[in-house]
Every structure is written in C-alpha cells, then in structure tokens.
Amino acid sequence: MHRFHKLDKMTSTRCAVCKYFRRRCPPDCIFAPYFPNDNPQRFTCVHRFYGASNIGKMLEEMPVQLRADAVESLYYEAKCRIQDPVYGCVGIITSLHRQIQIAQSQLAKAQAEISFLDANFVGVEPTSSLSESLVQQNGVEHDLDDPFSTWFY
Amino acid sequence: MGSGSSPCASCKLLRRRCAKDCIFAPYFPPDDPHKFAIVHKVFGASNVSKMLQELPIHQRADAVSSLVYEANARMRDPVYGCVGAISYLQNQVSQLQMQLAVAQAEILCIQMQQQGPDQLPAATHPSMMDCDVKSLLLSGNNTSDFGDQMPQFLSYTSSSNNVIQDPLKRESLWT
C-alpha cells in the first residue's frame, strides 16, 4: 500500500518531459519549470524538432533567468514549423523583409511627393516635413549587411 | 554522393557509411561541414532526417536552407533565435507604417492648403479644416492603430497583422 502511494505521488508530480519518457522526475529536473505536466502538447511540439537532449543542453548552457524565454521561443519556432514545414518561421522573416521594402518604397515616394508639392506651389509655406524629421529621429534603415539579410538578397 | 566519392558532411560527422540514397547528401556536401554541424547541434540529425522525409523532394532544399538559417540564428542568439529577428523586423514595419501615415497626412495637408477652404469637398470632415498633420492623425483617435484611423490614405495596409497567426510581440509571448 505504502509502495503504491509513493508511486502515485511520483507519477503525479512528473513534468511533461519525464512523463513522456516514462521516467522518474527528479527534484532538480531541468525541464520541469518549463514543461508542466498539464500541457503535454507543448513538449511534444518542441521535441518533434529539437529533441529532448538538445533542449536540455541548450537550457544548461544559459542562465536560469533566461530559460523561460528560450523555451517560449523554441515553442514558437516549433509551431511555425508545424504550420509551414518547409520554411518555418523563416517564412515570416521573408515576408517581413518584403513588407519593409514595400513600405520604404512607398515612404520614399510620399516624401518625394511632399518635396515636389513644396517646391512647385508658390505662396504656400513649406511644411516642416514631419515625416522626414521622424525618419531622421528614428532612422529606420534596412541594413543589407545585417546577417539576417544574407539569405534573402 | 554514394558513388564512391567522399561521404557527405552528415555522414562524415556521424562517422558512418554514406549510402547511395543518403537523404542528407544532396544538401550537405562534404566541402561545407559547418552547415551540417550547426543544424545537427540545434535540431539533431535524426530530427532533420524525419523532417526531410516528410517533405516532397523538390521542397527539401528550401527546407534545409531554412533550417540552417534558424540554426544559425539560434547559435547567434541562444535565447530568442529567429524570434528575436521577427520581433526586430515587426518593430521596423510598425515604424515605417507610422512614418508613411504621417507622410500621407502631410501630403493631404499640403493639398488642402493649396486648394483653399472654398474648394474643399463638401463631405470634408470639420477636423480637416484645421490642417495640421498631427491633428489629422489624432482626430477621432481612440486607438493607436493608424490603419484604423485613416484607411483611405493607406495604400499599404497593415498586412503584417495577417502574417503571423500569433501576434508576435515579446511582451505577449512571455507573460
């Protein structure tokens, strides 16, 4: 009776990872804080692409306070890969790069139009070109030397 | 590979015989060992093999490229990986959209100034009589979404909202 009671206690407190592998979940299990047993899908999703030992190694190599974010990002990337098995989250990055190019082109056209309107209509006070000063302030420039760009250009 | 020449980068790293139909060979040539090494470190060879097996052959090259990209991103930023890049790019898109909205409001202001109050369309909103870019942008603003405020001025719609199924802002991901 006592043995079964102990077994129940052990199995009920296992994290999702240890439950998946049908092993004892030690008190210092590296996965337990991030893969609770009430959300098994989270681990199966991440495990499908990264593997438990790789995840464990990644977590061991980083400070404890960063591990939760790391697991979240791995989970996000795994979900993206499920949705798009060919490109995963890289498809999203490609799309964002394209959107940036389009927006930059439209912004350049709009600013050219402002300059044209300012220059060609006499008697109208030139506007302060709020948009230009915003660009100078915030300086959104698409850096083609950005290492994230190399795959797309 | 498989024809007697040197094994592919994968089989070399895994120290095994490179079969004729090795699934890795077309994508991990022996002259670029780093490519497979990094993918193996992040994903693991067996996971990569499974992923490739589940794809039609004509899509595998692109899949490998995206895996290499993700693995590189994860090595560069072990905590956030590609998600860090997505967050950064989304921020850029938002800033550009804002700048574009301001520029388009400015154009409208200039055009209104040039036309003069007599010639404004009858349906012009009273707030537009006072042609100030900021007031144009902020008039009737109960949200911070420029797209909702002035849809008629934005030829570039905020399609970025449709790109990512889960709106990816760091603050919403990690509660």
* Helical fraction of chain B: 55-70%
How would you classify the helix and strand content of chain A by structural class? Answer: mainly alpha
Content of β-strand of chain B: under 5%
Quote the beta fraction of chain A.
under 5%
- Mean pLDDT figure of chain A: 82
Distance between the termini of chain B: 48 Å
Low-confidence segments of chain B:
140-175
| CA gyration radius of chain A, whole angstroms | 26 Å
Silhouette of chain A:
elongated
Alpha-carbon Rg of chain B, integer: 26 Å
What is the distance, rounded to the nearest whole angstrom, between the alpha carbons of the first and last residues of chain A?
67 Å
Largest sheet of chain A: none
Largest interface (C-beta under 8 Å): A-B, 61 and 63 residues
Order of helices and strands of chain A: HHHHHHH
Q: Average pLDDT of chain B, to the nearest integer?
A: 77
Strand elements of chain B, count: 0
Tell me the number of strands of chain A: 0
Helix content of chain A: 55-70%
The helix count of chain A comes to: 7
Largest sheet of chain B: none
Secondary structure category of chain B: mainly alpha
Account of the 3D structure:
The complex is a heterodimer of chains A (153) and B (175). By secondary structure, chain A is mainly α. Helices cover 63% and strands 0% of the residues of chain A. Chain A has helices spanning 2-12, 16-20, 40-50, 52-60, 64-83, 90-120, 130-138. In chain A, helix 3 (40-50) crosses helix 5. Chain A is elongated and about 80 Å long. The model of chain A is unreliable at 141-153 (pLDDT under 50). Chain B has nine helices and no strands. The longest helix of chain B has 35 residues, at 81-115. The radius of gyration of chain B is 26 Å and the shape is rod-shaped.
